[in-house]
Amino acid sequence: MYRYFLDNEQTERHESFIVGIRELTLDEDFNYCSNNLSMNILPVTDNRYNFTCDYELRIYSSGCYYLNENNEWQSDGLRVGSQTNHDETECFTKHLTTFADGFIVLPSPINWSYVFANMDFMRNKTIYLTLIIISSIYILLMIFARYKDKKDVEKLGVTTYCFHWSTVEFRNEISSSFYSVR
User: For the chain, how far is it from start to end, CA to CA, in angstroms?
Assistant: First the structure.
């Protein structure tokens, strides 16, 4: 398995990278790998090659960050280590600061004092108007649904009778059928 690692100092001020991968021919394998020559002089070509073996390419991004005095994430003075993989991040620092890796981003805390101090109608017209409109639509839909329910009961023709139980005579009819198969 081959691994190529770029740390954050090598990638500073770059927005994108292009990675090319191809299988070496037998001659290239012998000339560049067996003779322990520098990997920097491998030939680069635009020709298409078919791979004769399976390969897997895994690319991931990782970073090391600390919170500065203004509660903002910064990465200056921190470097991602070469032992970083898709499960762990190795961080090296030039200063004594508590830091975290790029896989964990803590949420900002809610300042409830500020929220309750600034919840008047004039500062939050859009929020209050949205709540009023949605609540009004909900109430109107509930009234309309109740009206339709009453109309459905009328269409079914359900009628209730008022009577005295002592004057009512109940009769039951039981019918049965038998079939014979020959």
Answer: 80
Which residue ranges make up each domain of the chain?
A: 113-156
Helix (H) or strand (E) holding 91: strand 91-93
Is 85 strand, coil or helix?
A: coil
Contact 55, 65 (CB under 8 A): no
Instruction: Single out the residue of 22, 31, 17 nearest to residue 2, CA to CA.
Output: 22
Q: For the chain, what is the mean pLDDT? A: 75
Q: Residue 130 — pLDDT band, cuts 50, 70, 90?
A: very high
- pTM for the full predicted model: 0.38
Only one residue has tokens 């929220």, namely 115
Report angle CA 51, 52, 55 to the nearest 5 degrees.
65
The Cα–Cα gap between 17 and 6 comes to 11
Residue 65 token pair: 């960050």
Asked if 106 and 99 count as a contact pair (C-beta separation under 8 A), the reply is no
Question: Would you list the DSSP string of 2-58?
Answer: ------TTTSTT---------PPPHHHIIIIIIT---GGG----------SS-----
Contact 19, 59 (CB under 8 A): yes
